[in-house]
Amino acid sequence: MGFTGGFTYKGKRYPKLPFEILKAYDNDAKCVVTYRRNIGDHIEEYDLSKVDPEKMPYADVVIGGFPCQDFSSCGPKRGLSSKRGKLYQALIVYMKHHKPKVVVETPGQGAFALGCTHIDERALQRFRSFAGRRMRAFGNEHLAYGDPRGSRELRAAIADHLLSTRGLRCDPDQIMLTSGTQHALRIVLGAILRPGDQIWCEDPGYPAARSAIGHCGLRPVSVPVDVSGMIVAKGRALAPSAGAAYVTPSHQFPLGMPMSHARREALLAWAARRNAMIIEDDYDSEFRFGGRPLETLQSLELGRRNGAGRVIYVGSFSKSLVPALRLGFLIAPPPLQAPLRAACHLGGWCGQWPVQGALATMIDRGLLGRHVRKMRRIYAERHDRILHALTADFSGWLVPQRSVTGLHITATFLSGSLAFERDLTERALASGLHVERLSTYYATRRRKAGLVLGYGAIPTAQIASGLALLRDCFVRIQ
Ligand SMILES: Cc1ncc(COP(=O)(O)O)c(C=O)c1O
């Protein structure tokens, strides 16, 4: 059986393999890494945990080896078996030594990986069934170009959904569907700014947004954040005439705190004075499980007497459903409706009629709302378990950041250096744990070392064993 799915190499996603792979093992019984010396030539198999990875012949392609999410059933301690742990360590040594052209990750993610959600079979089943029905109804009336902003039905459903879940009031005509946040940013940045313009970005912040900003020929300005979010006064000092600010006010990425009311007011005041725009990325705010509900920046501006419509709201279904859908949206304030609609027409046209229709049905029937409430309970429990364990069992190493939202938790090191952070995350990866390095989210030298742990995908019952493995990594490294 061939495996021809996509793969990730050095952080870049390739949708299709340039060749067919005949075997991809990733199970505890065999622990085999398959590699191909010359593409199309032949396949040899080695068990890297048995041979010296440095003495292995060079391979263009290495398959397998990355930890599955469901690692708890693999070993005697309900963690990774030592054999499998050895394999992952050997694979890392191999990769460092030989630098193969392509490394294919076998399906699945390490425990604590970011960017994954809990897969709820029931919700998925419903989505499949609605999408199937929509596909079967895909008739003549759907074959023309349609609206560049995407399906009116879904836009209307989103407007209702946002009013009930976020208290955000908007007209479906203001909503433009996108294939996710990145796409929304591309549309917005291209439409409202000119090449060379400066744009404030949180530091630490979301690297993908920063990259999109750079790719559009704009100049990101790193503005530090503190416990209240982006320090607006620093932004004013660093780049007073920037054309826009990109912020995550509901749940600062990656540190996790919301932006304080005073900072929100200061940001809006700066934008009004300078005629600047604010891009509000509200990526996972549905999952707020503590404290009072937070208003969006767009609503706050709408409530101001002289609110001129400077906030562009960006939302995504990557967290509330699954990232693979590639569905998101932006809400244009009235003054920007025309240029943003034109930008959609030029390069942002988002079709996928059956998928958009299926999502509209999910929302209209209250199924998305129900799914989000169920996931919120699951994520809240995972968050509490991790926070409790970090406070109780890692207090000599880590300081967890306060946060009551989302699918990840961030902790800074009490005293660890950047080298310690790197060694620790490499060892963790070898043990089947995919934890991110906090320092990599900083764009400046003020970076702090620490860890970012996702809990979207890790089954709740596996959190304790995953954290026990992480603790083990600390003990061995220090
Ligand atoms: C800060 C932030 N914004 C947005 C997103 C969602 O991006 P997209 O809609 O492109 O999947 C993520 C996903 O991890 C994120 O971390």
Structure description:
The chain has 478 residues and is of the alpha/beta class. It has 3 domains: 7-104, no CATH class; 123-368, Type I PLP-dependent aspartate aminotransferase-like (Major domain) (Aspartate Aminotransferase, domain 2, 3-Layer(aba) Sandwich); 369-477, Aspartate Aminotransferase, domain 1 (Alpha-Beta Complex). 37% of the residues lie in helices and 16% in strands. The chain is built from 13 helices and 18 strands. It has helices at 82-98, 121-136, 152-166, 181-192, 207-215, 232-238, 261-274, 297-302, 337-348, 353-364, 367-393, 418-430, 463-477; strands spanning 7-9, 12-14, 33-36, 43-46, 61-63, 102-104, 175-178, 198-203, 219-226, 229-230, 244-247, 277-281, 311-316, 328-331, 398-400, 408-413, 436-437, 450-454. The strands form 4 sheets. Strands 7-14-13-12-11-8-9-10 form an 8-stranded mixed β-sheet, sandwiched between helices. A 4-stranded mixed β-sheet has the order 4-3-5-6, with no helix packed on it. The longest helix has 27 residues, at 367-393. The two termini are 45 Å apart. 47% of the residues are buried. Pyridoxal-5'-phosphate binds next to helix 4. Pyridoxal-5'-phosphate is lined by residues 115, 180-182, 206, 248, 253, 281, 283, 316, 318, 323, 328.
